[in-house]
Amino acid sequence: MKVTDVWTSGQRPTVSFELFPPRSEKGAVSLEKAIDKLAALKPDFVSVTFGAGGSTREGSRQLIEKLKSEKSLGVIAYFAGYGLGPADITAVLDQYQELGVENILVVRGDPPHDEKKFRPHPESLPHASDLMAFVRPKYNFCMGVAGYPEGHIECESKEKDIEYLKLKVNNGAEYIISNYFYDNQYFFDFVELCKAVGIDVPILPGVMPIFSVKMMEMLSNLCGATITDELRQGIDALPEGDKEALVDFGIDFAVHQCKGLLEAGVPGLHIYTMDRSTSTVAIVNRLRKDGLL
Ligand SMILES: Cc1cc2nc3c(=O)[nH]c(=O)nc-3n(C[C@H](O)[C@H](O)[C@H](O)COP(=O)(O)OP(=O)(O)OC[C@H]3O[C@@H](n4cnc5c(N)ncnc54)[C@H](O)[C@@H]3O)c2cc1C
Known about the structure:
Layout: H1 3-9, E1 14-19, H2 25-39, E2 45-48, H3 57-70, E3 75-80, H4 86-98, E4 103-107, H5 128-135, E5 142-147, H6 158-170, E6 175-180, H7 184-196, E7 203-207, H8 213-223, H9 229-236, H10 243-263, E8 268-272, H11 278-289
Helix pairs in contact: 5-6, 10-11
C-alpha cells in the first residue's frame, strides 16, 4: 500500500520504524531479534536505509525482501543517489519495482567515509531535487524526500533549505520524513515554514530514542540536531555510567516528545530504531496504553 493512502484512509496516526542493513554477523543476529519484536508491534510500515554510493545495495535489497515476504510488512525503500550514474540509479529502482516495493524515499546521501576508494560517476546528480526530477517520470512509486526541522547542516539558511525542499515536492515528492530533533518547537516551526511556501504534503516527524550519550553526540554532530539544555541537564542528573537509567530516561524523554507531537496532530511517528527494539517497544506500548496511538 502507498504510505500516502495509509495516511488518508487511517483514523489514527501511523507508527513506523527505520532499519538499516546489518554491517556484520553480530549485527545481523541482533537485527533479526529486533525485527521480530518490532514486527509484533504491527507498524504501519518500516523503512530501510541505502548506503550512499551503493555501499549497502545488496544488504538493503535483502532486508527489504525479508521484511516484505517473511514479515509481511509495508516497506519504504530509501534510495541515496550520491555518486551513482543514471544506469545504476535505474538498476536499483528497477530491482525495487520487481520486488513489489511501492514506496521509496529519495535522498542525496553523503560521500562515504572512505572517500578515497569511491569515485563518483561523472554523470551523478548533485541534489535530491535532481534525483527526483530524474526518477519521477520513470516510476510509479509513492515518493518521499527528507526534511530538516533545524535546517540541513550544509544549508545557507533555513529559508533556502525550505526553498530546495519545495523544489523536491514540485519535482514529485508526495511526503516528507523529517530528521530527528530534541525540541518539538523546531518541528512545529518547520511545518509552519513549509506551509508558508505552499508545501502541502504530509510531514512525518522522525524520533530518535536516546540510549547512548556517545552515539547521541556523534549523530547529532553529523546531522545538526541540537542537544538542548533540558536534555543535557536530564542526562547529567543520572547516576554516572548507569546504562539502564539512561535507556529509561531516553524512553521517558521520547514518550513526552511523542505526546507533544501527537497532540499537535502529526500524521504519525517515525522512529529511528538503530536496529534495536527495547526503547522503541517501550515507547510505542506506553503511547498505546495511554490511547494516543
Ligand atoms: C529521513 C531521512 C532518511 C535518510 N536516509 C538516508 C539513507 O538511506 N542513506 C543515506 O546515505 N543518507 C540518508 N539520509 C541522510 C541524507 O542523505 C543527508 O542528510 C544528505 O546530506 C542530504 O540529503 P538530502 O536528500 O536532504 O539532500 P538535498 O535535498 O540535495 O540537500 C542537501 C543540501 O543541499 C542544499 N540544496 C538542495 N538542493 C539544492 C540546489 N538545487 N542548489 C543548491 N543547494 C541545494 C540543501 O539546502 C542542503 O543543504 C537520510 C536523511 C533523512 C532525514
